[in-house]
Amino acid sequence: MSATATVNMPGVSETGLSSKEVSQRMESGQSNAVKTSTSRSVKDIVRANVFTLFNGLIFAAMVMVLLTGSWKDSVFGFVIIINTGIGIVTELKAKRTLDKLSILVASDFLVRRDGKNVEVPHNEIVLGDLLWIRSGEQIPADGQIVETWGLELDESMLTGESRTVRHKVGEQVYSGATAVSGMALVKVNAVGSHSYAATLTAQAKVYKKTVSDLNKGINTILKFMTFLVVPLCVLLILSQVHAVGGWNHAIATGEWRGAVVSAVAGVVGMIPEGLVLLTSLNFAVAAMRLARHNTLVQELESVETLARVDALNLDKTGTITDGVIAFNRMIMLDSAADADARRTATQALYDCCNEEQPNGTGKAVLAGLQSQGYKPAPVAERVPFSSARKWSAVVKFDGVWTMGAPEVILSALDGDYADVLSRVNDYANDGNRVLLVARSLPQSAASTARSSEGTEAADSPRLDSHAKPVALVLCAEQIRSDAEQTLAWFREQGVRCRVISGDSPVTVGAIARKVRLTGDRTPVSMDARKLPDDVNELARVLENVDVLGRVLPNQKKAIVEALHAQGHVVAMTGDGVNDALAIKEADLGIAMGNAAPATKAVAQVVLVDSKFSHLPDVVARGRQVMANMERVASLFLVKTVYSALISLGVVLTQIPYPYLPRHITYIGALTIGMPAFILALAPNTRRYIPGFLKRVVKFALPGGIATALSVLAAAWVLPNIMGWNVMANDADLAAQRATSAIILFVMGVFVLARVAQPLNSWRGALVAVFAAAGVIGAFIPFVAQFFALMIPTGATLLATAIALVSAAVIFALCLWLVPLAGHAVASVLRRHGFAV
To answer: Bias category Polar residues: which stretches (predicted)?
Structure first.
């Protein structure tokens, strides 16, 4: 058992389980332990990186080449093994980082054992434990209430009903519900997989393969490759056997080996082997980089969502402000009130805030009044504060005292209190959090404490319409020093920020002005109680609103839904249980490290140190991954396109394959593989827009077609010009393949330069370095011999130069003509009713 800490709580008669009973139940499996993880298991990581379709195809191709005895042409297989190893090591490192970080945000729970209250981890709660449920906590195991101090639960995650429910002694409560006010002592009667917690935790914490635009694009490429590679490989072998004189001659002379090697050259070229590796590698690296800034990514693939965010809903408390609230002063509404009246009202305010688990404002008021010498006084009955009601009340000998949001309380009272509301707005305009204290006479106490029917006292508390406003309470929050700078970054990046809070819209608006939420423009504030219920109408209203106050938990969720209806990708920050529904509904949920367990459970990202200033780095990291993956995918797909077209040309014209597998290994490493790793990790803040596959294909087709035409044209024309007999003379075939390899390399450099644009920075140097490396390598004897590279001389040099000039012209023409042809085809298809 982990170390426990003794905690002071209300006195109860029950002693709870003994240490021996706890040990017995732990051994018998009656604990709350469930299998959860913030990332994939080691087994899953190894399996995902090793057993892929691409690796299967490449392994099969490598075995085929090894069977021919040409081991140099099988080196591409070892490159894939190295790449896979890099992927496994990187993801394992990310897993260790994330698992360590997730411990920092794990919550402990308070149980009563051996007559003492001790804190234990979620997994060490056992059947029969006496469990304390405190405000802000998500219930970790099912149980029956033994004692209650105004416990009020949000069961929306279980029932979908947003209305909070008050529970009594003897009633059953279920894991997954969240305490919004009060507290209770519960006897646990279901743990582990037998409770709601198991399902909820599994859904919230397990690694999930998100169906994303990037994944769908890559999966489409995979499916295409599956249908293309196998039949093309068979056709290539048949064509190469035919090129050497048929099966009998190929088997008799051993030239079948060359046919197989040539076929594999085409297959290997079509496989974008590094694309899947780089995708998972990028997600893992992004997660590790964010972890160094105390940001926990609970779903690695949520980085794609980070890249697409264009609407950010911010909770004021704990995000823009540091959550530290200080009591300022209490102002009596009756200027003639004497000292006794002030003391009575102040004591009532203290008693209203003196709950078992007061919220931040309540704690601030208590701390301020305690410093003035105020202490708890007897209370006959209490209605604890609720974020849904926005008020609390106590019944005392001199009447019912209510404390809460001025607009809510005043709207329920008889009479005209416009002057009071005006004063509230004046104070709120200065950035104060304003509370109202109201009093009902003793004979009206039942109106507040009970429902209109007078039967369900604790279930439906109501305000007394005959109550009178007594005083205003002023509190203030401290604005985070990094808030203004962070919001300015989001404005520059085209992300629309809105502040959504349960506080007064006037107060929140004043804070929004101070942090320049909308730059030089004054932010537009609105009371959420005036929002329409219809989603489409709500969406239209939100387009012109920057600050929303008095927002209820279910309204926060509705706001996210309305933004979705307008096509926005929404991120939502929060720390309270009232934010959990909206965070779960948002495309990207971001919880603060000090957030309630329920909020952290449903968020994809947790800011462990609760610093709002980490958000730009979170969004920028996502944009970097997605924008760079688009570059990298384009680079890999060009190779797939030209390899497929060259293979098709070889099959149709029955010529020897124009280059060897080792050529494509050398060229691919220098113009695709190594540059792709660098480009994938480069800075990039471009906002991601859906349509990944369409853009990648649009980019890859011109370069792929140009490269294929250049290589095939050289393979068809050069033998006639140079007098090479490539069918019968091995030296002539080697010369042609070396020339084709040069053309392929130069075209690869052209494509790399196009992908790496703009070239007026380090990207230009990147292209120059790898181009130089390819040329220098050809002059190194060992490298040239191993990869079958030849430096052309004499007439061959002239022919190669002409072929390269022709290739450059073809490349330029394809960049112009292919998009025009694509637009023409798309136009024809649209005219015939096809969606393009």
So the answer is: 15-35
